[in-house]
Each structure stands twice: as C-alpha cells, then as structure tokens.
Amino acid sequence: MQIGMKGSPAHVLTNKNMTKAAKKDCMKELYKESAKDTLKLTTLAAGAAGIGAVATKSNKFVGALKGIRHSVGEALSKVNIDGTNLKEAVKNSSVYTKFNSLPTPAKAAIAVGAAALAIVAPLATIGQASKAGYIEGQHESK
Questions:
Q1: Mind spelling out the 3-state secondary structure of the chain?
Q2: Can you give the pTM of this predicted structure?
C-alpha cells in the first residue's frame, strides 16, 4: 500500500477523524484482515501447485509444460545483453540448474503455483486496498 492511500497505516495514523483508540482498533483489524487474505492467497497457490503436480500424469499437461518451456527458451535466445545470450545466462545459473534437476511433478507444481500467484496477486492487492479503505472509514467518527 502507498503512503497516504486510504487504508494505509500512514493514512490511518494521521487521520484527524479518528481517536487514538479508533486508530488502534483500526490497525488491529487491518492486520487481521491482511493475515486472512495472505492465508487465502497462499492456500490458493498451494492448491494450484498440488493440481499441477497431480496433472503431470496427463500427457497433454506435460506436453503443454514442455511447449511453454520451449517458447520461453526460444524468446530468451533472441535477447543479448552486452554480448551475453540471455538463454545461456539463465541455463547456466544455479537456480535453473537446481530447478531443472527436480522431478517433473515438482517442476509442474512450481510452474502452476507461480502462474496462480502471478494472476491472483494483483487482484488480491486491489481487493485488500479497497477493504482497508472501507475498514478505515468504519472507524472514523462522523
């Protein structure tokens, strides 16, 4: 959250329409809601990762994963930075080496979990911001 944005800790703490007690209660409620939202997001990503791992029994799914990997590799191979090919740089990195040595179900779980987070995280952030603004408004004295 940005400073000054309604529902942000900085906005709550400088809100002239709230008493000290209301600010304290508001902050407590904001952190409680944030923790619940984080737990939901983590559960969703873990569930998606589990589905990805189970789906490796499907030849279509494994074929799709290989196709995506090939497409990403092809795109990276076209990029050079200071004479270094990006695909080669990624292939030679320790992270890629460790990831590539994992069994297919683990790679699928990581890929699907990461994709779920990439899609859902921005939406969750928007939802949290609007919820935080609403919570702050509920604690303001009218």
A1: CCCCCCCCHHHHHCCCCCCHHHHHHHHHHHHHHHHHHHHHHHHHHHHHHHHHHHHHHCHHHHHHHHHHHHHHHHHHHCCEECCEEHHHHHHCCHHHHHHHCCCHHHHHHHHHHHHHHHHHHHHHHHHHHHHHHHHHHHHCCC
A2: 0.55
Per-residue pLDDT of the chain (142 residues; tens, 9 = 90+): 445 677 888 888 888 899 999 999 999 999 998 888 888 888 877 877 777 777 777 777 777 767 766 776 777 778 777 778 777 877 777 777 777 788 877 777 777 777 777 777 777 788 888 888 889 888 888 6
Distances (CA, A) of 47 to 23, 93, 109, 113, 122: 36, 28, 9, 8, 18
**Token output for 76:** 């990276």
Q: State the Cα–Cα distance between residues 33 and 132, nearest whole angstrom.
A: 8
In whole angstroms, what is the distance from residue 1 CA to residue 22 CA?
20
